[in-house]
Amino acid sequence: MKLTKFIRKTAFALALASALGVHAQDIKLGFNGDLSASPSAQSGRAGVIGIEAAIEDINAAGGVLGRKLVLVSRDDQSQPPKSIQNMSDLIDNEKVVAVFGPTNSGNALAWRHIPNQKKVPTMGMIGSGTDITKPMSPGADNYMFRVSMMDREQVAALVAYALKSGSKKIGVMGETTGYGQGGVKDMLEILKLHNIEPVGVEKFAVSDTDMTSQLNKLKSAGADTLMVWAQGTPIGQLVRSMDKINYFPTLLTSWAADNITYFDAAGKALADKPVFLRTMADPATPKQKRLYDRIGSKLAAPSAFPFAVHGYDATLLVAAAIRQAGTTDGSKMREALEDMKSPVDGVMKVYTKPFSKTDREGLTAEDLVFIKWRDGKLVQYSDNTIKQMSPADYKK
Question: Class of 9-149+283-363 per CATH?
Answer without folding.
Answer: alpha beta
